[in-house]
Amino acid sequence: MKTMPSSSSPAGTVLVLGGRGRFGLAAVQAFARDGWRVLAQMRPGAQAPTVTGVQWLAQAVNTPQAVADLVARVRQAGGATVVVHALNPNQYTRPAWERENGPLLQSGMAVARALTATLMLPGNVYNFGQGMPAVLLEGAPYRPTMAMGRVRTEMEEQLEAATQRGELRAVIVRAGNFYGQGQGTWLDRAMLTGIRRGKLVFPGPLDVATPWAYLPDLAQTFVALARVRETLPAFESLHFSGHTLTGRDWVNALQPLAREQGWLRQNEPLRVGGMPWPLIRALGLAMPTLGALAALRYLWKQPHRLDNRRLRERIGSEPHTPWPQALERTLQGLALLGAEGVTPLPARA
Predict the structure, then answer these.
(1) Which of 62, 141, 202, 243 is such that its CA lies 20 to 30 A from the CA of 78?
(2) Edge-to-edge strands of the sheet including 210-214?
(3) Nearest to residue 93, comparing CAs of 288, 298, 295?
(4) pLDDT beyond 90 at 120
(5) What's the total number of domains in the chain?
(6) Are the C-beta atoms of residues 6 and 73 closer than 8 Å to each other?
(7) d(Cα 279, Cα 294) in Å, to the nearest integer?
(8) How far apart (Å, rounded) are the C-alpha atoms in residues 174 and 101?
(9) What is the pLDDT of residues 270-313, one digit of tens each?
(10) pLDDT tens figures, 182-239
(11) Considering the domain boundaries, does residue 234 fall inside one?
(12) CATH code (residue 234)
């Protein structure tokens, strides 16, 4: 089995498109820590985060001229050998995905082609649809059953076709639910909204296991793959396993923590409530964001995990923060815990 390249080996220059987003910022930080020269694109007028050694480029990418301008600026800065595509639509809705995801990918592909760089893209499990198997092997067939899954499938097919034509090289890293880098995830939008009152909101049955991606680990996986990119096929699609967790795992970890924080009395159990899915579906007819969430309900009812055997063949062991540490850091990032942390949570692989 291959070993992960040493962090002391020479790094290159990476351009992160959408560097201020949740995954984008995690990628910016991970590449910078690994010694890469980092260029990070953001929307004009946005405030650049403070990350040592990063050059921020305020530049739109929504038109061919804007893309050309970005490429010119990157070339002026010395070029880039890797482009991380972390661009997302402005809204998490079906219309926004159908309208914006394709053009955003085309912009990313155009940048990578112009720079002769490898394009790296985070993927998700939407492609597999409601009939997906419990174990998702790398290379499993796509059978999307919702609009957003069809959008992602079309994007990946377009990317693969471009690599087959010799236009660029590309790597997709598929992962489960994001957490651990800012707000806007299932955790802060739903699951932990009542945690200070001693309540966990869980979107599905407590015994169903699903994959979760701690973003610092996922970003470090991108770094490891970027280092071995020349050894990969022109198109590679890999799986990041992350943490596979049930609702009971969340209860067992959060209950002692809630007691310690004073959100529960010593012997009081953590209350668990479900999502009001019928109401969400009904409101989704008029509110596109809720409609998009309603379409994801099946992911909480169908047990599934991502098998990463091919990823491990490429880089060795997958970057992996033990779940208790990842959870504690995530809660601190959401301002639910003090900077000093808490008593270590029950160990879990």
Answers:
(1) 62
(2) 177-179, 210-214, 243-245
(3) 288
(4) yes
(5) 1
(6) no
(7) 9
(8) 17
(9) 999 999 999 999 998 898 988 988 999 999 999 999 999 999 99
(10) 788 888 888 999 999 999 999 999 999 999 999 999 999 999 999 999 999 999 999 9
(11) yes
(12) 3.40.50.720
Signed CA dihedral, 218, 224, 227, 228: sign only: negative
Cα–Cα distance between 165 and 103 in angstroms, integer? 19
pLDDT (0 to 100) of residue 305: 97
CA torsion through residues 317, 322, 323, 325, sign: negative
Report the pLDDT value the prediction gives residue 92, as an integer from 0 to 100.
Answer: 87
User: Is there a domain that residue 87 lies in?
Assistant: yes
- Residue labelled with tokens 């419990």: 134
Angle between helices 102-115 and 147-164 (to 10 degrees): 20
- pTM (two decimals): 0.92
Is 50 exceeded by the pLDDT of residue 105?
A: yes
b/e map 76-92, b = 16+ CB within 10 Å: eeebbbbbbbbbbbeee
The Cα-based distances of 262 to 258, 270, 272, 335 in angstroms read 6, 12, 17, 15
Residue range(s) defining the domain that contains residue 25: 13-177+212-241+304-320
Backbone angles phi, psi at 14, to 5 degrees: -120, 140
- Residue 85 within any structural domain of the chain: yes
> In the structure, what pLDDT confidence band is assigned to residue 338 with cuts at 50, 70 and 90?
low
The pLDDT mean for the chain works out to: 91
- Nearest residue to 63 (alpha-carbon basis) of 104, 109, 115: 104
pLDDT tens digits, one per residue of 27-69: 999 999 999 999 999 999 888 888 888 999 999 999 999 999 9
314 located within any domain:
yes
